[in-house]
Amino acid sequence: MSETSAPLLSVRDLKVHFAVRGSHHAVVKAVDGVSFDVPAGRTVALVGESGCGKSTTAYAIIGLEPTTSGNIYFAEHDITHLDKRARRALAGEMEIVFQDPSAALDPKMTIGDSITEPLAIQGWPRNKRRQRVAELLDRVGLPAGLASRTPNALSGGQKQRVVIARALALSPKLLVLDEPVSALDVSIRSQILNLLMELQRDLGLAYLFISHDLSVVRHIADDTIVMYLGTIAEQGETEALFRGPQHPYTQALLSAIPVPNPVVQRTREKIILSGDLPSPLAPPPGCPFVGRCPISIDRCRQVRPILAPAATGTKAACLVRVPAADPTFNERLT
Ligand SMILES: Nc1ncnc2c1ncn2[C@@H]1O[C@H](COP(=O)(O)OP(=O)(O)OP(=O)(O)O)[C@@H](O)[C@H]1O
Ligand code: SF4
Ligand SMILES: [Mg+2]
Question: What's the number of domains the chain is made of?
């Protein structure tokens, strides 16, 4: 990750725990100590199985979910606990795009009104808003005539283009994209991904890109963060992580990506993990991955690994593969 200038977004030891209704003690540790940066103009992907805490991380960043502890910095300002007014002011700087564009658009509003809603809230006059709609529709590759239509006249891909246009209305610096192509037909996905890459190139946007699809992540992301049970198992530059994954969970995830060449597919070993993701209500005391790990040792049940640099260029939280991931590593050396 870039270390030359301050990152646009910095997340430090973020925890988001949910109280369990009807219990005095039980908490769901949806996000449990996550730190990462998103530099300006770069794409950082968050990947991992369903329930590992990707969306909760995104919602905390965007202010939709209160944080339990930790800090979130945007352009070097601490935005962890903003009041509603300060949050509204920030809305122009960072926006979120959700998976399902149909749910994100009011079926009764015209496309033009939906796109200019953020501008209307900021008090833009009507004629300026109309001009901006035409610009934004053009930016996302839609005809200007769609401004007067309602969402039911549009395809899924067109609706997601409208949602992206609305997110761009106030010229943000960061888009948080929560599975932005997962609800779309496979044939449309690459068009939307290409649009996102083109917008990034032209506008210098940064993306926090959440996805299940590792092929998409490899294509689009500069840096990749692999989450497991509310924690980070491995993170690093996408190429380094895909070429030399260190954490056994990353290795299992990558081994499941289909390869277009059937010969390679047949010869490549697919790592099947036994068991499901454990409940974030009762994570194991040591390494969160211990119950499914094919190479665990006894110490993994007692010690929680921390992220430490691996020889391949990523950082991984694994006591076996990266011994420095043991928090007592330095003490034990002396
Ligand atoms: N409001 C809430 N109250 C209690 N538990 C919650 C709440 N929101 C999320 N969770 C739990 O937190 C964990 C993380 O959920 P999250 O939605 O962040 O996962 P995710 O990685 O985005 O999954 P998916 O890939 O399915 O979208 C899950 O166990 C989920 O059930
Ligand atoms: S720390 Fe232990 S259980 Fe965790 S991933 Fe490494 S070997 Fe597996
Ligand atoms: Mg999610």
Answer: 1
